[in-house]
Design goal:
about 70 residues, binds zinc ion, three-stranded antiparallel beta sheet, 3 strands
Length: about 70
Amino acid sequence: MDSPQTPMCSAKGCRADARWVLVWNNPKLHTPDRRKTWAACEEHREHLSQFLGVRGFLKEVVALADWTPDTEAS
Ligand SMILES: [Zn+2]
């Protein structure tokens, strides 16, 4: 098994180690304080950010090294 410390990129079919955490919220499904996260590699950060961004879901993009999941992650 791979090291559990490094999450894999959330992009479909991508198995690269994640470098970024995309924090998002879908107001139709989630309460405003709820935070969902996607992991993204260097290559897919832009693609995934745009996917969430055009829907108005994206809250912030944080470098994985700086990411501290202090709120509940699911
Ligand atoms: Zn990727």
